[in-house]
Amino acid sequence: MAAIHLPRTIRIGGGVLDELPEVLAAAGLSRPLIVTDAWMQSSGLLARVEALLGGAGIAARAFTGVVPDPTVTSIDAGCAVLAEGEHDCVIGLGGGSPIDSAKMIAVRRDRTIPELKAPHQEDSPGLPIIAIPTTAGTGSEATRFTVITDAETDEKMLCAGLAYLPLIALVDYELTLSKPPRLTADTGIDSLVHAVEAYVSKRANPFADSMALSAMRLIWPNLPRACADPQDRSARAALMLGALQAGIAFSNSSVALVHGMSRPIGAHFHVSHGLSNAMLMPAITQWSAPAALPRYAQCARAMGLADDSEADQSAVGALVEALHRINADLAVPSPRAYGIERERWEALIPLMAQQALGSGSPANNPRLAEAGEIEALYRQVWH
Ligand SMILES: NC(=O)c1ccc[n+]([C@@H]2O[C@H](COP(=O)([O-])OP(=O)(O)OC[C@H]3O[C@@H](n4cnc5c(N)ncnc54)[C@H](O)[C@@H]3O)[C@@H](O)[C@H]2O)c1
Ligand SMILES: [Fe+2]
């Protein structure tokens, strides 16, 4: 049995951004607040969206104060801007940070974010959410999650529920052509981890499996191509579709231990989300694989690392080796090479392990980790 939840409308392809006025009209929406960040403003993308809407007689207001890994303070500021206007929907324009911010601004009302964090489930709808992703990474345009950081405790709070599922997603790969190689690598690995974790999760189901395997087939060969040539349009299109499918996969299955352990690294050491996933992925895959060998072997086959005749054990060996190799190729640093102080890393390990477990994600991992094992894994990935 599986219950599947998706946006009502997903438009996919180069140029679908131009269809924004049409999809808003079809949904009976006409007073959007655009939630975005400073880069979207300085790059001219916000102005392009405002002009599109203006051409259709829609005067949108914008909140441009989104910060990477959005914080409670930045959400408060966005909620204040929402309250100053008369809005019937919220548009998240940008990477996962603007989309996650748009979700929380649309849904929060008079609650505090700690009240909304997992295991709380928020299913009662807020304002309709329209997601326009620009990073081919988080898949947030199609997920029922948002992640907000409490800057005082450095906790990345995972908030879950149908309220956060966008009504409409416009998935236009042309918006990702401007991503530099580092951002391409980090967001691409994030989407790959979504697909693999959704597929090996204890909550896997046939629908999510099909999305996850398709995502792995799209992401694995195209990630090095887009990093080598940011203007490679077919690679960009494949990565954008793969990130969407991976988001659909984990939203209808789950993420697991990598994401559980990655969020505390991001929160305490301000490592980008994709990069902290990448730091963990090879070691956690190796540690988890014995508990779900056939599943990890299927991942290797979907990624073209093993053929159907190859035994599971050797397919998984190829997978772990390839994950180490892609980290080297994409210049993913270890926490040590990233410049994190050893003493601080060591001192925070018990808290990070507790926060990882608290998010609930490790409970979906095929191999269950106790706090002591998570601590040992944090120590192992240090260099
Ligand atoms: N809601 C979910 O289901 C979900 C899933 C995974 C991650 N997340 C969250 O998403 C956030 C990370 O999102 P992200 O990785 O997309 O990055 P991001 O939104 O934080 O953006 C990172 C940087 O890239 C810039 N940028 C975005 N698009 C660009 C483009 N096309 N060209 C050039 N620069 C561009 C941004 O302005 C920003 O400076 C984290 O907070 C993470 O926890 C959410
Ligand atoms: Fe992620």
Short description:
With 383 residues, the protein is an alpha/beta fold. Helices cover 53% and strands 11% of the residues. Helix 10 (257-269) packs antiparallel against helix 11 and helix 11 (273-288) packs antiparallel against helix 13 (312-329).
How is this structure best described in words?
By secondary structure, the protein is α/β, with parallel strands linked by helices. The model has no long low-confidence stretch (mean pLDDT about 95). A hairpin with a 4-residue loop joins strand 6 and strand 7 (about 155-160). Helix 15 (about 340-360) crosses helix 16 (about 370-380). The chain has 2 domains: about 10-175, 3-Layer(aba) Sandwich (Rossmann fold); about 180-380, Dehydroquinate synthase-like - alpha domain (Dehydroquinate synthase-like, alpha domain). It is built from 16 helices and 8 strands. The strands form 2 sheets. It has a 6-stranded parallel beta sheet with strand order 1-8-5-4-2-3. A two-stranded antiparallel sheet has the order 6-7. Helix content is about 55%, strand content about 10%. It binds nicotinamide-adenine-dinucleotide (NAD) and fe (ii) ion. Fe (ii) ion binds near residues 190 and 273.
Structural class: alpha/beta
Radius of gyration: 20 Å
Strand content: 5-15%
Helix content: 40-55%
Q: What is the assigned CATH homologous superfamily of the largest domain?
A: Dehydroquinate synthase-like - alpha domain
CATH architecture of the largest domain: Up-down Bundle
Number of domains: 2
- The first-to-last residue Cα distance is 42 Å
CATH topology of the largest domain: Dehydroquinate synthase-like, alpha domain
- What's the number of helices? 16
> Would you tell me the overall average pLDDT?
97
Point out poorly predicted stretches. Answer: none
What's the level 1 CATH class of the largest domain? Mainly Alpha
Find the count of extended strands (DSSP E, 2+ residues): 8
- General shape: globular
Described by strand count, sense and barrel closure, the largest sheet is: 6 strands, parallel
Distinct small-molecule ligands in the complex: nicotinamide-adenine-dinucleotide, fe (ii) ion
Order of strands across the biggest sheet?
Answer: 1-8-5-4-2-3
H/E element order: EHEHHEHEHHEEEEHHHHHHHHHH
